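# step 3/5: fold
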Amino acid sequence: MPTIEEVNDALSNVIDPELGLDFVELGLVYDVEVDGSTVNITFTLTTPACPIGPQVSEQMVEFVGELDDVDHVNPKMVFTPPWSPDRMSEDAKFALGF
């Protein structure tokens, strides 16, 4: 069974193409649950109008699915609560000039 840290490490490969930073650093991953060989990921986008949702879901399935003992990856996109720059890591804030 993978750890939350291993899942987050895998999710760090999911990059926002406009900002050039990963979803974890941007604070776009709201929750990760590991239930045996199933990983449930709750995430958001910087804006509901962002067109990359399907691409992001596919990348999450790909990268997290490569972890040992993972058989199912269930990404779930939500928009509540809305994302804000306050959710970003300090490194991401620095990189983007916040």
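# step 4/5: annotate
The chain has one domain: 4-90.
# step 5/5: archive (pending)
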